[in-house]
Each structure stands twice: as C-alpha cells, then as structure tokens.
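FIELD: query
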Amino acid sequence: MSKFISLCFRNHNEQLFSGLLQSIENELVLSHSTATPPRLISSTGLTTILINPSEMCEVKDKSICVGIMTQKPETWHLPGGDIPDGNFALIRADQHTLELVTDATSSRIIWYYQNEDFLIASTSQRAIIMLLGTFEPNDKTYSWFLTSGYHGPDMGWDKRLKYVHSNQSRLILNRETWELTEETPSFTFEYIQKPVSEHYDFYKKSISQAFSNLTLNPDQWAIPLSGGYDSRTILLLLPERKKFKTITWGQKNSREIPLSDAFIAQKLAKKLNQPHKFYPLDPAELPFSELLDRFLIACEGRMDKIGGYLDGFEVWDQIQKENIQGIMRGALPMSISSVPQNMEEVFSHLETPEFKQIFPEEPDFIHDFSPKVFPDYLLKKPGESLAEYRDRLFILYWNPGRISAFNDVKLNHTETLLPFCLKEVIDIYRQLPDQSRSEKKLQKRLVQSLTPNVDFANIDSNINLRAYLKSLDVRNEMLDLLSDPTSKNILPANFLNYLIQNLSTNGLEYQDRRYSKKIVLKKKIKSFLPEHFYNWRKSPRPNTDYTKIALRACIILRMNQVLVNDTAFLTKIQLPERIS
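FIELD: result
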C-alpha cells in the first residue's frame, strides 16, 4: 500500500522543504480511504518520503524498500549490495551513490527524472510532475493505450519520465559526477531437452520448495480465490495454508451460477475446510466521472481494467477495514498461450493489436497516431525461438506495463505479493523448454494431482463492464468528455468525431447473458473440449467494441486534465517557486 517519493540534489548541502513532499500525499491517496501518516527520511542532499507506509516497509539508514522482500540479504540496503527477492521497489543510498532497484518483473514501477541539478524518483508519475510544475504530454503512448489498454514500452504520460527496467535492474547515480547508468542483466533460457516426465519432476520439486520458503504471517495475508489454476496453486502449495484467509468477490447472484469464479471458489474452500469470505460487488451509485476519477487516482490511468472496481472500491475499503495487510495474487510472469508458430502469433499472445486490426475499415485517423515500435532491446534476437522471444517480452515489457498497473490500483488499500513473479520461481520457468512452459501444462498437471474433485471456473463473476458502459447515463458522460472542445487538443478531431458518431448510433443497452442457461451450457461443453479445437472454431472476423475504445479515450483525456492540474501543486501550497 506504500509509495515513495525521493529528491536527490546534486549540491549535497541543499535541503528540500520537507513539508513540500508531505503535502503531495493528499493528492495521491484516495480521499475516502484510510491512510497511515507519511514518514520522512532525510539526509544531506537527499530527502525521501513514504506515503501511506505499511508495517511491511523496510527502512535502514538512507535506504527504503516498499513492498515485500521474501528473501532479504544482509546487504539489501547498501548500494552495490545483493538484490533481494520479492515484489518491491527499492531505493538505497550513501553519500556517494544512489541506486534504484527493481524486482524480477518490475511489479512496482520506479519512475525517474534527472536534470543537471536534481533527480526525482518515485513509484508515482504524478508525484514527479507535481514537483516539476510542468507537464509534457507523451502522445506516443496514445497508440498503445487505445489498442491495448496499457502504456507502451518505456512510456509514461510525460515524455520526460523514464522507468527502471525489470529483471532486477539497477539504476545507479554517482552523486559526485552526476552520471546515471543502468545495469540490466540479460534474460535467457537455460534448459536441456529431457523427457517431459523429468521436467515435471523438476518443476514439482522446485516450485514446492519455492513456496515452502515463503514465511508470511497468516494474520496479515489473504488469498483472493478465483475458480482458476493460479490462485488454487498458491493455496495448495502454501505452507500452513489452513491459517490463511481466502476471499472472493463478485455479483451477488454469481455464487449460484455453476462454473462461475464465485461458485467454484466457495465450493473449493468448503472442500478444503478453508476459511473463506465472499464480498458482494455492486455498481456504485456514483456518476461515471467520479468513479473514473477514483480509478485514475488509484492506478494513475495506467490501464483500462475498471470493471473490477465499478463498486467505487467498496470491496477494497472493506478488506482494508478488516486489517488485511496483503493479498497474494496469481499472476504468471510468462505467457499461458500455446507455442507460437509465427511472429503474428507472438504479438497476438501479447495482446498488442494494430489499429487496422481493431478498425478493419482503416479510417483516415489511423495515420494521425504515432506508429507502435518496440525499442531495440525488445526485438527478437538471433537464435531465439518464438516462444523464448514471447516470454522474454512478457518479462521485460508485459509485466512492467500490466502486472504493475494491476498492483498499483490496489496499493491504496493493501500490499500485494505475486508468488509466481519471484525470481526464484522465474528461474524455474527459465529451465523449462518451450512446450513445457506454454499453456500452463506442468502447472495444470501439478494442481490436478493435488486438488479435490472441484471443477475449474470459466465464467467471470465481476460486474459486466460492457453493459455498464452502454447504460444511458454513462454513455452520455463519455460523450460529453469526448465532445469537449479541449479534447481536440489531445486526440485527433477526426478520431473523436468517429467515436462520437459510433457511440451515438450503436445501441444503448447491452444484455448481460453470461448467466443464462444457454451460455452456461456452452461453457460447460467448452470445458471438455481441447483448447486447439475451440481456438479453431473462433471467428476471425473483427468486432470493434466502440465502448471499450471510448473508455480508453476518456482515460487519456481525463488523465491529461489530472496531470495539467498537478502542475499547479506548488502554487497551491504557496511556495515561492517550483524546484525546476
């Protein structure tokens, strides 16, 4: 739940007015949630503030770790020291060096900005923009966000901001020469061909050992239990699992629907005699604009996955009130898809479509957006298999962009731990060949050997986002934002007009049929069919979802407004001048 902001001056004798950093907290924390008082760590030329610090934050000398260190070396706080394992963002410093360190998947992004006088580092983009007092929009990210719902690689909302790369990278600032360098280990696969049975035995032994190494206080942690494989794997492998709470949320009636997440989760918990609680997820009685702002404050607009938060964060408020300090999520660090046969399938698995795939009629506005280009370090290497390339992209691009965004949205309320995204676990996957890594083959085999006779879910229990967006009130609010004259200063006018026209003529109501008998029966049949059969049956015809694209456009437009407002922060607190 914690964030940090750090300001390092090149002139070691210069000190920052501590009240400035502390004042930022009110802007970054959800107004209706409960936050612990900020903590200030200051030394010559370096000031860091912890926002909403949890009991799990680590502070030693000038060094701070937000998040969870599952393996903590004695030198974790020393620049150049061993890098811990866990899910965290780490800043460590002495009088000569400042280091920013990520975990294996950048489960928390560390943003930074440097000029000739100071360096600002933070887990919040907004905090840096507040301190700079200026905002320079990065229109290159719009192409990525509109087509995938996330930022592109190495991109934030402001073109000046950068982030520390994943795979336990270290950004090193020499405080004497003011030179900034980044050390990023190469990511490779190191497997040998063996019978599948031997790979399974290795996986089973290694993953079980990795989970047994987790030493967590059950009184502080809960396991969100869906009906899928990932959360079930965590539950079954966790030491002393019966001491941990399991929780599930969803629409009230979803608990009565066979094969829904909520139905399967409660059935599994009962079979395992596991403590379990269900949280009903009801749409908040809030205007869309207010709900959207809460979501954007929580995740800084880094993703479009608002569907799980349409209750206005009521579920997460309740989880926080119950003193659940952390949750263990089941996100996997590599692709769960089949082995790709060509580059098109690689990018399909990464869910990074081009505009022409979303808009098959290829309207003129496509040419008004910057092309989507991967930086050199994310291009395919000679000799790299397609599956290796896909999974390297997951580690270096997908995880920093997506998994960290999912973490951010929850960090106002609770800490998160992703056991599958620990370096110890990723190193296990790196020793598996392409076929064994793909489609969760070994994981499924392991879980099926350990689990009681309980089905796996394939019906979502959350509020239906498409139905929500197509309601008259929400649609009208989106149209108002898209039609605002200032919006044309951010997104191309012909693109906005295209969206407005299609939203105006594209049916108002959308019936949520997920729980109908016909759909449930289809899902039941699907659960018995091989995956390749069902993929073959899928229609290749694109179906443009204008409400989803409109939501993404609204997030871009509203985040620009938020960030422009942030530039006035220093003026509001009546300091004589901004630091830039």
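FIELD: remark
Confidence is low (pLDDT under 50) at residues 532-542, 575-580.
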